[in-house]
Write a structure and sequence with these properties.
The structure is a single chain. By secondary structure, the chain is of the alpha+beta class. The chain folds into three domains: about 325 residues, 3-Layer(aba) Sandwich (Kinesin), CATH 3.40.850; about 45 residues; about 230 residues, no CATH class. It is built from 15 helices and 20 strands. The termini are far apart. The N terminus and C terminus are likely disordered. It binds adenosine-5'-triphosphate (ATP). The site of adenosine-5'-triphosphate has 18 residues, from α2 and β14. GO terms for molecular function: ATP binding; microtubule binding; microtubule motor activity.
Length: about 625
Amino acid sequence: MLQEVRGNIRVFCRIRPLMNSKSISSIEHVGNDGSIMVCDPYKPQTTRKIFQFNQIFGPTTTQDEIYRETQSLIRSVMDGYNVCILAYGQTGSGKTHTMCGPSGGLSSNDLGINYMALNDLFTISTSREDVKYDIRVQMVEIYNEQVRDLLSEDTSSTKLDIRSSSNGLFNLPDAKMCPVQSPSDVMTLMLLGEKHRASGPTAMNNRSSRSHSILTVHVNGKDISGNVSCSCLHLVDLAGSERVDRSEATGDRLKEAQHINKSLSCLGDVITALAQKNSHIPYRNSKLTQLLQSSLGGNAKTLMLAHISPEGESYVETLSTLKFAQRASTVELGTAHANKESNDIRELKEQVETLKKALATKEFERSSLKLKENTVTSERTKQLPQRTPPRPRRLSLETTSSEKGSIPGKPPKSPVSAMTFNRDHGTARDKECRIDGFNRTKIHGSVIQMSPTLSEEPVGHENEKIVTTDDMVTSYQLPPDGYSQYKQSGLDTLQRTPCRSRYMGVQVSQTEEPSDAKLDKTTTSSVAKRGSHLRRSIQSSIGKLIHGSERRNTPHSAQATPAKITTNANNDGASPITTNARLRRRQSLTGLPPPSTTMSRRSSLGGKSDSSVQNSQIIACAASARNYKPLP
Ligand SMILES: Nc1ncnc2c1ncn2[C@@H]1O[C@H](COP(=O)(O)OP(=O)(O)OP(=O)(O)O)[C@@H](O)[C@H]1O
């Protein structure tokens, strides 16, 4: 019958026997329908009070009879329901007697609900062969607003934190969870817990509990089909409210009494708020209400056992207890439901969990990879200025033999960081170029070297190399008349004008740097810009040089474009005079024979003109100047 509890907190009332034969009972009538009538025996004219509960147990009711009425409720734990049984009442009214037994659970005689409940659960567990149960026990107390583990050896130092779980409820993850296999295990644990529980004598009770104790039984079941159930049973023995003038509590007892009364007051507030269906329920006002939140306002099946002392002297407390219990009986609970899962649902949930974890792992890997990439990029960016020494702004003409540490006939010690440079950073038709050492020329910073592989087609002169740049300065050797030739040629502009070559190529070496060190795109882009600048400067200078002479020879020719060198003999529109002048000029500068007309006309300058040929000649010019050794 109780198993069908729906809606409200159930309330039973138990009346303890008169302890003092001289006292007059305040209980006038107990009905079979759960009603009770009380009055103050010392004030006969006062109004009689009637209360109605689910059950009333008189002074002669035995422990077994009490348990029998609660058995079905307790058994529902085995079916997956959460259950809570609360013993409430003034000090000395018999709460501990009901829950633990006559001597507070320290004797195996006349055992209380706690032990009988666990014993019963084992009986059910054994009788249900198709379900395998795992039963574990926790036992804690709330003493002076601190949660202590009663199953731990040193309870006073074991203060537990109440944690909020994902479903918004509170639990005690650090409380010792003891598996129990038999009733004797339960008995051992309960004796241990009761031994540790705070108690002390007062004027109202020789062995007064000074704390709220909570015994929690966790039941997990799994049947042969794989269906699982998970539930818990809270068995709560509250400390009793007391009037300190009557209990004569002083010192520690007084402090305990104050904490007890305060937390019971918080419990009363929660019950009142729940009964009035307030939007805010003050669960967090005390440890007791936090821990009982799910039992008072959740979907558990909750039973309150209100205890009263029949003595007329305790009439005020009895009235208070009955009022409290009646208010509690009006508290509407959520519909209790079994915490059961079929095998299919459980498997699906497990799959969902596995997928969630896999997704989380992937997300984590992705984010850490991103982080790593960012770190590497920022490190490289930091290292970049160290790799690239300050760049001189002026070209100087020096002999390469003056280079420090160079060994004739040997390649550079460390061709340094080789980089494959995608010339998409330069012109669209540029190609990737391989870096090799650069003629042992020590340069401030970088060496930009052109090789025949730089353009789409060979330039024609294998040794054509240009070491240039406004910021990558090299040393040149000039022939004896090199300087005048050089001046005449206009190449000195190269020194003052940042040179750019569209062939740049892109092999960027940094002397005295680890050869395998690769520069990142930032470096590449920077080199490409410098290369492009250099190329334009070279072309501009050579353009000036060539067109300058052309202008002298052909005063009426169209204005030359300095940046565009049109030395192509077959260039449409170029006059033969101009072309010849150019060829002569080129030959005088480079000492090379005139380029063959069959030479490829394509270049990396967008393939529009035979600038590769021009460039090779330009390069040859520079290389010639560079490699020329001064006469002794
Ligand atoms: N139904 C009962 N039959 C016989 N004796 C009882 C009964 N209920 C309580 N007593 C006795 O009354 C005394 C006080 O009971 P108990 O210690 O259980 O009260 P309590 O409500 O737990 O008090 P406190 O709140 O101070 O701990 C005990 O000696 C107990 O044996």
